[in-house]
Specification:
about 450 residues; Uridine Diphospho-n-acetylenolpyruvylglucosamine Reductase, domain 3
């Protein structure tokens, strides 16, 4: 989570992995749209550009600014909820964790989720955050309308009927169109998942990956470099009774083993990089198998306490096996000291203008490095591989692309830019990162 210093000056801001920081000229925490409008008026009078911070879980520099930084943490309520239709209208600053619990109390759920739930809804959707499931789209796809405040304080509502291009742009917007104040989502009836985790030979998994993806509601795999085996995660809808775990067992499995155990081995690998191949094989061997049944959000989401930095690319789903093999060969041939796993997930095509899954069924491949370890040579190497598969970077994860290299990868790039020019003609909602990846 981001940290804020205690000071009479505008507080400093730091993201989750501690590598993105800024000292804004003004820090605003509005609780209402009226207060937000006043904050934007103050920004305009001071000649400040404006950025909005969510939970700080993005690894890129989308947030840092020396102008006005706005936090929507106080705009975090469920405004309307209709159990009969599944439509729910919420303020943009609500955390996914809190939204999941509220929906569950009313017999509803989001159809898909990622593996963490600390992000704000607006931040997660603006960067194209996703879960896994070849028949399911990313988290922004269920958005039915976006309420957004422009730099002049005007509130606009963007939906498919009244402004289809604005709606398709605002669902994955990078915060470049204005301040999202509220969203209306399509929820689904609450459901349970049976989660089965376990190892399998990596090469056999890659040979069968299309069948595995098609035969499970939610399928993903993790591979620790230098191990022969992958760790498979298969989540499927079920009517089975939930499994029960005692508090000590939950702590042992979710905190002690998954987090503290991984942290200890990562520290050892950082101190002695030559041990990493052996440590990775040990982690894979110790992971074992598990089976759980629970509410969807309980199976989807887990606590992540170990610090790392990450890059993730979206490629055509048919390129999955070849891309993973290419990364494996690059790591092994160079004996790179990579202690964190590669994560592979799958989503259906969607139509948000800047969604990394726009127009094509997609495989997401994420690479990570442990806190304090060098990441750039590894990430640049993987990015070069992803370029060969027409890869599109996750907007909230590290990458080295620019507007010039990204534009050819998005068929509707110019439509997004037209919406941006219409809603923010003065370029008020920008910073150096937005200029790099979207242009001025």
């Amino acid at each position: 989570m981001p940290t804020v210093s205690a000071s009479p000056q505008p507080p400093a801001w730091t993201n989750w992995d501690g590598r993105q920081r800024c000292a804004p000229a003004a820090f605003e925490r509005p609780a209402t749209t009226t207060e937000l409008r006043s904050a934007l008026e103050r920004a305009a009078s001071g000649g400040h550009r404006v950025r909005v911070a969510g939970s700080g879980h993005s690894f890129t520099a989308l947030v840092p600014t020396d102008g006005t930084l706005i936090s929507l943490e106080r705009m975090n309520r469920v405004l309307e909820l209709d159990r009969s239709t599944g439509l729910v209208r919420v303020q943009a600053g609500i955390a996914l964790h809190d939204l999941n619990l509220t929906l569950a109390r009313h017999g509803l759920a989001l159809e898909n989720l990622g593996d963490i739930d600390v992000q704000t809804l607006a931040g997660a959707t603006a960067t194209g955050t996703h879960g896994t499931g070849a028949r399911l789209r990313n988290l922004s796809a269920p958005i039915r309308s976006v309420e957004l405040m422009r730099a002049d304080g005007t509130l606009v509502t963007l939906d498919e009927a009244t402004d289809p291009d604005g709606w398709r742009a605002a669902r994955v917007s990078l915060g470049a169109l204005g301040v999202v104040t509220a969203l209306t989502l399509q929820a689904v009836p609450a459901f349970r998942l049976r989660g089965v985790d376990g190892p399998a030979p990596l090469e056999r998994t890659l040979a069968q990956v299309q069948q595995l993806v098609a035969s499970h509601d939610h399928f993903e795999l993790y591979w620790f470099p230098y191990s022969r085996d992958a760790l498979l995660r298969r989540n499927d809808r079920t009517d089975e009774a939930p499994t029960r775990r005692s508090a000590p067992r939950r702590y042992l499995e979710d905190i002690l083993l998954v987090n503290h155990g991984l942290h200890a081995l990562s520290l050892l690998g950082r101190r002695y990089p030559a041990l990493i191949p052996r440590l990775n094989r040990t982690v894979t061997r110790l992971a074992g198998s598990s089976r759980r049944v629970g509410a969807s959000h309980e199976i989807f989401c887990s606590r992540r306490l170990v610090r790392f930095t990450e890059m993730e690319y979206a490629i055509p789903i048919t390129a999955c096996a070849d891309a993973v093999r290419a990364i494996r060969e690059a790591i092994h041939s160079r004996r790179l000291p990579i202690s964190f796993p590669i994560e592979v997930r799958f989503v259906a095509a969607d139509d948000a203008l800047l969604s990394p899954a726009a127009g094509r069924d997609t495989c997401y491949i994420a690479v990570h490095t442990f806190d304090g370890m060098e990441f750039e040579p590894y990430f640049r190497l993987v990015e070069e591989i992803m370029d060969g598969f027409d890869g599109r970077p996750h907007w909230g994860k590290r990458h080295f692309q620019s507007a010039a290299t990204l534009r050819p990868r998005y068929p509707e790039w110019d439509r997004f830019q037209a919406v941006r020019a219409r809603l923010d003609p003065e370029g008020r909602f920008a910073n150096a990162e937005l200029e790099r990846v979207l242009g001025r």
